[in-house]
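Please, structure for the following, as tokens.
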Amino acid sequence: MKDILSFLKNLQDNNTKEWFEANKATYLQNKNHFDDVVNSLIKEIRKFDKSIEPELEAKHCVFRIYKDVRFSKDKSPYKTNMGASINAGGKKSAKAGYYIHVENNKSFLAGGIYMPMPDVLAKIRQEIDYNGKTFIKILDSKNFKQFFKGIDEMDKLKNPPKGYDKDHPLIEVLKNKHFTVSHPLSNKEITSSNFEKTVVDGFKAMKPFLDFLNTVHT
């Protein structure tokens, strides 16, 4: 992983098409290494999550490094990270799944559902409304809290979502538009021999959270 971080740091400092093309061979070498890591993570996840299909591979999960700059103020052509979404059905799946993000000083493991479609978001809120005690028990479990402080609150609503009273006991949870959790990983952790174990342990800790979210798809 050290070589991957080194390449991404260099890309961060030289985010141009000319530099990237001149270093394409190094990129491909590191991408292949990252794919190997993701394939290993998939294998480990399948030991405790049988929803991950046996045929799922890194190619179904790893995101492209090329940016879509059409609607971005930042016109640099490449992402400065390597990331993979390990879901039942792959990265394009609407189901809650696992995510690994490797970037110089900005790495993290995460999971859940980011930007769910309105109908899915409504079902998640309804499930929390109906089974709030179960949901809170998951968030308060020892294994979960070892890695996660709670639900990530980016883009959180200021007012209660339609159909929910401001005095609802879980209104602050219901205001979320994304239902994800995340845990930061330092460069030292990324390059450690325990890297894979740390990530897999984090994924294990979040599985009950993902299972709860995925009840809306059953």
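DSSP finds nine helices and four strands in the chain. The chain has a mean pLDDT of 96.
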